[in-house]
Amino acid sequence: MGAIQSGLTGFLDLVYPPQCAGCQAETTNPHGLCGKCWAETSFIAGTICDCCGQPTPLAQSDQVAICDGCHHAPPGWDQGRAAVLYEGTGRQVAISLKSGDRLDLARVAARWMAQAGADILERADIIAPVPLHWSRLLKRRHNQSAELARQPILSRTAKRIPNLLTRTRCTETLEGKTRAERYRILQDAIALTPRYKGITQNCNVVLVDDVLTSGATLAAATAALRPENPASISVLVLARVAREAAELI
Q1: At what angle do helices 105-116 and 88-99 cross, to 10 degrees?
Q2: Cα–Cα distance list, 49 to 65, 67, 120 (Å)
Q3: How distant is the alpha carbon of residue 100 from its chain centre?
Q4: Which residues pair with 127 in a beta bridge?
Q5: Most buried of the four, 64, 68, 192, 220, by CB within 10 Å?
Q6: In this structure, are residues 56 and 202 in contact, taking their beta carbons and an 8 Å threshold?
Q7: For residue 8, what are the β-bridge partners?
């Protein structure tokens, strides 16, 4: 099967030349970025907050860093990683994956995420996406978080459970809401799917999402898993909104 997929990919690359994941210009690197889009992508590197993946350039590189936001208001999960900041090309890729039917971008996005979250993926037992309510799934036709979570590069050793969590109700849009309002709206909106009762006990679980803004959605997903006594809950996202910007959304 792997040989067939590789052959098909090679054939498609001959018929349809590789395109930049950001601007769709032709590139020589399949599922990559052109020089201009690469320069406009804010990959997260260096010292980061261990909880939320926020860059913490002033922290000591030999110590586990916790940003002020997570220090004063711990997010609930144990560790967090993000591949890019939600700006420039990173923002465009996230939007295209979510609303532009560019499911092909899940492959390159997952590769970025695998690099950013290598440490938490290495010990992951279970990988699961943040769920989408069925009514939104019907309208959007796909769950971008599930598309990311199902990429093989993220789950080489872990078990993928696409429907580990369920949305219990369709919530109102979070756009324009404050952090407190987002947390209130998402409270108890996500639950463990009954058939998976007990499956996460003593396991290292990684929750996958596309964008981290206030953390309300991932916090609700984490709250749904905590009673199951997992060994740890980590989050891995494609893009995160810089904390200063998130406070304004």
Answers
A1: 130
A2: 5, 5, 14
A3: 17
A4: 160, 206
A5: 220
A6: no
A7: none
